[in-house]
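User: Round two. Same drill as before: sequence, then structure, for each protein.

Assistant: Same drill it is. First protein:
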Amino acid sequence: MAASEAPPAEATVEMQPPAQPPPPKDPEEVTLDAILKHLGQFGRFQLMIFMLICLPMMFHAMFSVTYVFTASTVTHRCHITECDSPESAYIEPWTEFSIPRNGKDLDQCNRYNNDQLPQWNQSAGEDICQAEHYGAQTESCPDNKFVFRDKELTISNDFGIYCDEEWKLSLVGTINNVGQFFGIPIGGYVADRYGRSFSIALGGIMGAVLGIVRSYSPSYIWFLIFEFLDNMTSSTLYSTCFVIGIELVGPKRRVLACSVITVFYAVGEVALAMFAKAFPDWRILLRITYMPSLILLAYFWILPESVRWLLSQGKEDRAKGILHRAAKVNKRKLSDSLLDKLILANRDKLEQSAESRFPIREAFKNFKWRIANCSFCWIVHVLVYYGLSLNVVLLDGNKYNNFAYVALVEIPGFFLPLLIMDRFGRRFSLCGLMIFSGVCCIGTIFAGADQPVLQLGLFLVGKLTITASFQVLYFFASEIYPTNLRNSLLSFCSMMGRFGSMLAPQTPLLAKYYASAPAMLFAGAAILSGCLTLFFPETTNLVLPTTVQEADAIGVKKKPAKTQTEQPGQVVP
């Protein structure tokens, strides 16, 4: 971050960490952001908390995409009765003339007719597995008997889901997103109503239990039921971890802190790919993935609550206790008088606000356009993000490596906002990244299959920039809503984004009518939404709003203040 952007007062505090800030002339001048600067914007206490919340972030990454491996198709071909034996491999000499080709691969559901098969006497040892007996006509695999290429076990070959029924495998991904659609707003409400740490611990432990139970599913229907419940309960982990990270550190370190948090999402995806590669049995994979997350039960006691949330709910003693603990761990002095002034300022702020402690109706009334724009932006991000991931076949053919590569390319995207958000602002960073990703999608159209290296490069850059843009969006959305509704409104926008994730798997159908249609859809949506983000208020270096009135004041030009009192929507002193 540019050093020139650091306010002089902030620099003074950081150069003299042991010194107490000058006594405020007015209690309202004492803000939580000012105290966090004094304690250290990203000290040992914050680092300890971040280490704790990175763990549920990793678990959430694995929970939300396990269906990629548990409900994947398994490569197979018809069992050729007159040729195959129990020891036959996937590729045999007779597959060249008995199995039709589907591109470069063997057809999974059809075989060529053998004109001698109806009168074949198997007990007589007659050999009719000869090329001249096979014609051009095909038939479906008899009795659903197949020969598999790998020893992988998914719900496909466990529950007998093949060929015409493979839509059931795609349905798992849809049910996964439907569960998140309902779970995200519920989890956001729980986080705003009962606390961030409570929401993380509850969502994590419920997801863990349901995931383990799902590994014992006796049928496809039970698997779907627990897929839905698992993702409904654990879907809020990402946004809640992000919000608690935003609320924990000082303004200058928010971008760095949250970039570090989200990197662990990519780490979780890579870990899942490696687990799936090592344990190709879907039941074992679920147990390996979910059992370690039972440790989140301890978070009910060991994860400190967000001080901002405690203050917004009037839980003053708990807030003071956590700040004292932070001061002790960070080796800074924090006087009781300073905390008392913070409490007085917070009381005045809550009393002056005519809203309740959970003013959801007032928020939708005041922020309807902001929420609508944020929701559309979220839908577009999810659509482009997952839509580009469907093109993973542009990489090598190993699905485990493919998944890991796509996850790894996201890591630079998580840190890119560090270089641009404070320099260019939230709005212009979000707009520029979305438009650039859209341009990359257009570029893949002109590159074409004749230039695979260029097409692959544009694909990866497009994925990197939409990942960076998604990071900015999460950060931005956390700053434009008030503390007592931040998690709920962020979760609402994220819930609306599930429409994008439901649509993304259907986009390959467009390619049957026009090969470049998916890329054109992604590009058009990204560029349009990128332009609309300019209607958001700018939040760079602003105090996080506590009330609806403060959030509504962000971006509103005001006359010069008569006093030095810090106002919502002003640059942090």
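Second protein:
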Amino acid sequence: MAFWWPIIVLAFAYAICRFLLMLIPPNVPSIDVDASDVLDDGNQTQENSFIYIPPRGRTQQSDRKVQCYEPATMKYLGFFPALTPAEVKERVAQTRKAQKIWAKSSFKQRRQFLRILLKYILEHQELICEVSSRDTGKTMVDASLGEIMTTCEKITWLLSEGEKWLKPEYRSSGRSMLHKKSKVEFHPLGVIGAIVSWNYPFHNIFNPMLAAVFSGNGVVIKGSEHASWSGCFYFRIIQAALAAVGAPENLVEVITGFAETGEALVSSVDKIIFVGSPGVGKMIMAKAAETLIPVTLELGGKDAFIVCEDVDIPHVAQVAVRAALQSSGQNCAGAERFYVHRDIYTSFVNQVTKIVKSVSAGPPLAARYDMGAICLQEHSEKLQHLVDDAVDKGAEIVARGSFGHLGEGAVDQFYPPTVLINVNHTMKLMQEETFGPIMPIMKFSTDEEVVKLANDSRYGLGCAVFSGSQRRAKEIASQIQCGVAAINDFASTYMCQSLPFGGVKDSGFGRFAGVEGLRACCLVKSVVEDRWWPYIKTKIPKPIQYPVAENGFEFQESLVEALYGLNIWDRLRALVNVLKIISEQNPVATSKRND
């Protein structure tokens, strides 16, 4: 016992010291970011105070300008240039120069960059959410959940574990290489390109940027033309934080434009990350094939939300409505197909109907609404087409939410939260990605049936399974073809930033977030070296040196048996033969060398 006392005292003292160190706040400088032109204080200039009417049925690309407006009010926000291919290549070239310097930075400097960002985010949550809300129509609560929490979680995970997963990782060397050390090194790829969607403009820019910069890369991000206004403001935050740690200029760039801008980016970088539709994802992949760069694609989703008969109905109904209506269709991880066991189908639908009828939609910054606007122009027409198709094929609308006060020019930017029953898989609503506040609910009778239904989709991003038996829920989820699954919860996988995120089938491939996403920004290099250098060096055994001895193959056979034989006696016998062959002189080989 006397032996253990000193160890216990030292361990206790160490724990106390660690605790005391946690009480000392880190020295994190503050940064100043000009936000005067993004705050809606009611004093907009006349130039920026009119209602914007976007052209219908054609792209803005011919205008060389990315026009920006608030989808909830149609107020004009300004414009940004649509960069030409030559301008994109110049931005990438500048980032490449900066990256060569940043690649030599320490993890201490990179962590300080993250801490500065985190401090600014925590102190300016309302500003960040308001900018996101104005540009995409989402509510402040949805912006906090999808923009702030996920980004803060990613930063804290990188601070805690990022360096550990980027350090060399030693692996076993196997039987034939016992005298060697084997390791995997993770080096920066160079310049990462990212083309991201509009649904979470803050997080979609910060997500690839954080992983790329922390792993020593530069990054050029093309934000969506539907969220360029907010993206360019968020870029200022990144620039200020980089300057505060002495990072080289142009290490991170945020560019604006349309399709040709994105094509030029794919052609210029060392890896591309794309978040968007399957159709555009295929074009990105084809373009990337020209330069053979790695691609990560996070594409569409049609997530299944499965409710077994043994659940707490009021609780799960509330979660289901949140999953369906999240950000009024801006739910990149939202559920779009709801399968409810027939024994509780009526009760569940009644509970959902009650909740949805209490939901109100309206301009998110004008009052307290549960749901905001739809970001994409003319998307409400697509949603109505899907609902009409379902109704024509036998579906029934049982509930719709209400609208608040809408401006005359913004009516088309809103769609009422809608619940449909009696749906089936012949309806487009159950097959095509909706991206809207629509909740189609279908019955199922057995676990086998619901697994088959859930897999009857060309998408495979995620699923959520609810059951009073956690074992049953896990068994169902394990059979669903998707990249992420939540058991008795919804979208919780994305809040665990240690986990990779991505899908299968038309939902894409590759992963971001987690260890896999961080290392995907790296050149993964395998390295083997002598374990006891210079005392033991690798030499070619004499029987297989050139010119190869007559018994060279016999030597190889015995060596393979000695290393990999199935029982110890065969291996020992083979080892004796190996040693015998090495010790013997080969007169034929000797005479050849003498000649």
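The two ends are 74 Å apart (CA to CA).

User: Perfect.
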